[in-house]
Every structure is written in C-alpha cells, then in structure tokens.
Write a structure and sequence with these properties.
single chain; alpha+beta; three-stranded antiparallel β-sheet; 11 strands; four-stranded mixed β-sheet
C-alpha cells in the first residue's frame, strides 16, 4: 500500500481515507478516549481508613480503662471513717478519716464502720426514736386530760401509771402494767429493737433541790436495760444523765416530766415536755 492511498488527520490521529489490500476502503479509526480516574475507589478507601481509626481508638480506650480497673479507684480513700461521729457516751468517735484506702484496689472498706458497731448504732437510733414517740403519746394524753400526766404519785410519793395509757396511746396489744412492771403481749410499738418489751420505772432523783438546780439521776445502769425512767417535776439537764428541778407549784411542776433511757454502750438520752 503506497503512501498515496490514505490521508491522515494529524490533529486527531484518525485515518480518513485509503483502501486495504483487497481494495476495500479503510474504516476510520475511533480516537482513543483518555482514561478517567474513578473517585469511587477513593471514597471507599477513606471510609475504610476512618473505620479502622475508630476501631483502633476504641481498643486503646479499652486498654486504658482495664488498666485503671486493675490499679483500683484509690480503694475508698475518700470514705471518712467517722472522725466526727459521737459515740453513745457523747464522746467523739475514733474513726479513721483516711478510710484505710489502698492504691491497688481492694481497700475500699477500710473506713467503714464494722458490722456489729453499725447495728448497735442503728438500734440506739431506734431507741431514741421510740423515746420521742412515747413522749409524744404523753403530751397527747395531757391534751386530752386537762394537762395532767399519765403518771401520778401516791401518799408515799411513789409513781402510779394510769390505767389504759399504754393500750390507748402506745400499743393496743400490751397488757396493763404499772410502774416497774413489764407488760406482755405488746407489738412493735412498745418494744426495744432487740425484741424486749419496754417498761416504765421511777427515776431515782434523790433529795429535792431548789427549782432550776441541775443534778444527776442516781442508780442508772451502765448499759441498755429496756427501761424508760420517769422523772416527774423535772426537765432534762444540760449534761448527760442530768435533770433540772422544776417548779414546786403543783399546778406547774406536776405537769413536767423527763424521760430517760440508757443506750447500748452506756450513753443516756433524755427527752422532756418543756
């Protein structure tokens, strides 16, 4: 085939004329289109890279948390062990305010109060609540009986508990009982937290003193005895176990009463209607 048998378009590199060896005209060649770079693969690559980065970050956080758990959370270092607490005798407790914490985990309970001590504290708190509730029953009795107390005194000065006071104002299940007699059949309203029924007893106030003078109640036990000690004509004193002589005028003094109870550990709690 000679050079005069076809023409070439130099601008497009497309054959536009000439014949082949059989004399047939040559078909024009289509221009080669430049290859387009696909953006789809790039997007997929970015997404995969982002996912891998997130997985790696989560894995690193998991390792850090696991390490912190192994090392512990400073083992209760912030648990104050009762440094400001008051024991049954009114004295400051000897709690350890660093909680006995351990930096390797497992020392968190060092500052907590022991199980037996905690239970004793709860029982004493219940006894205080019981005493306050019994005093409220007495004031209810007074409001229904012209200000008189559910106690009176005989000619010898001994206390008498008025009939039906416990049943009507405290616990309907209790049998009737006088001073220094523990009733039976009571429900939970007139029982100590350990299950023992309470009883009323006359407080040993000793010799009378001038009104306003403070003195100690005599002969109180050293620990809980499930007894409510009644001191007519008195109010609670400023120191533990002390009472203050009330007005000697019968219309005033005979309506005053202080109730005392000995707690576990020897502490004494007092409430009055003044």
């Amino acid at each position: 085939m000679g050079p005069d048998q076809f023409n070439t378009n130099e601008q497009s590199n497309v054959v536009t004329g000439g014949t082949d060896e059989m004399g047939q005209p040559l078909q024009p060649l289509q221009p080669v289109q430049p290859e387009k770079k696909s953006s789809k693969g790039l997007v997929i690559g970015l997404v995969v890279g982002l996912v891998l980065a997130l997985v790696a970050g989560a894995f690193a956080i998991g390792l850090t948390v696991g390490k912190d758990s192994d090392n512990g959370d400073v083992g209760g270092d912030g648990d104050v062990g009762g440094n400001d607490s008051v024991d049954d005798d009114g004295n400051n407790g000897s709690g350890n305010n660093n909680g006995g914490g351990s930096s390797n985990g497992g020392g968190g309970g060092g500052g907590t109060i022991g199980t037996g001590e905690a239970q004793k504290t709860q029982r004493n708190a219940q006894r205080k609540n019981d005493l306050s509730r019994i005093l409220t029953a007495m004031t209810d009795f007074q409001s229904n009986n012209n200000g008189t107390l559910p106690f009176s005194q005989d000619q010898s000065g001994s206390y008498i508990l008025k009939t039906n006071f416990i049943q009507r104002y405290i616990d309907r299940g209790c049998s009737e009982a006088g001073i220094n007699v523990r009733p039976t059949g009571c429900g939970g309203q007139f029982k100590d937290p350990d299950g023992t029924t309470y009883m009323f007893a006359e407080a040993n106030t000793g010799a009378d003193v001038n009104p306003g003078v403070e003195k100690n109640v005599l002969g109180l036990p050293k620990t809980v005895d499930h007894t409510i000690y009644v001191a007519m004509w008195y109010s609670c004193g400023t120191s533990e176990g002390a009472i203050i002589q009330g007005d000697t005028n019968p219309t005033v003094g005979s309506r005053m009463v202080a109730l005392l109870m000995v707690l576990e550990g020897g502490g004494i709690v007092c409430v009055d209607n003044q």
